[in-house]
Amino acid sequence: MTLIEAVRRIFWKSGLPKFLDLLRRTAFRPILYLCTWKPGIIRVVLMKIAYNICMYPSEILCIARTIEERRPCRLLVFGLGNDSMFWSLLNRCGETVFLEDHPVWFSRVTSLNQSINAFLIEYNTLLLEWHELLNRPEYLQMDFPGDIGTKSWDVILVDGPVGWKNTAPGRMKSIFAAGNLRTSSADVFIHDCNRKMEQVYSDRYLGSHNLVSQVGKLRHYRFSDRPCHLIPSDSSVNSELKIKSCSGIPVTAV
């Protein structure tokens, strides 16, 4: 067991996470509702701290502005986290669905926010396989619960599954699915694009010509009614990317 793993185990056994979850269900909820009503940088910063959200405030605002523009819409999120309730409330009167593969985390987040529409799924991939799977889309197909796979989604956020270690599932399937489940005029967000795999798969299955902005580690792809033509797997978004503003939010280095 590494030192980091030991510290995490002590933290979870201390009872502090349960206490923080209690605060998030009660005392911290006004912050969440204020952000949902009118997102702004100060409110988002407070929400990030209170709910221990991993995204940068500028990234959260980029997604939030797009959802505000399009709601009520169909919003599909790969990954379940402390920010899930915010996305669900923000897309009021729309359809918001979350897909999560980690049973313990799924149970924790859904028990904290029982109104969330979330499903437990499996990926059956390993991050270390990403080179091999890149040009083999037949291995990137997913089985979705209910009618999720038959619907077209207006906004898609890929923030899962875990993709920072070789034994993790990686986001190969979720990025591939985003390219297939989107509407012809969708907004697609891919988080953690500081990592090579996310960059390459987004390049391959979303297309650099659809990339409209990058804020921190978040890429924003916006599609028109034209078909999305897949681009060569060895192309590089970073060499061609011209950073633009995202829905009125200035793009800044974080």
Summarize the structure in words.
α3 (about 30-35) crosses α6 and α9 packs parallel to α10 (about 195-205). A seven-stranded mixed beta sheet has the order 3-2-1-4-5-7-6, sandwiched between helices. It contains eleven helices and seven strands. The protein has helices spanning about 5-15, 15-25, 30-35, 40-50, 55-70, 85-90, 105-110, 130-135, 170-180, 195-205, 235-240; strands at about 75-80, 95-100, 120, 155-160, 180-190, 210-215, 220. With about 250 residues, it is an alpha/beta fold. The radius of gyration is 18 Å and the shape is globular. The chain has one domain (about 55-240): 3-Layer(aba) Sandwich (Rossmann fold), CATH 3.40.50.150. It is about 40% helix and about 15% strand.
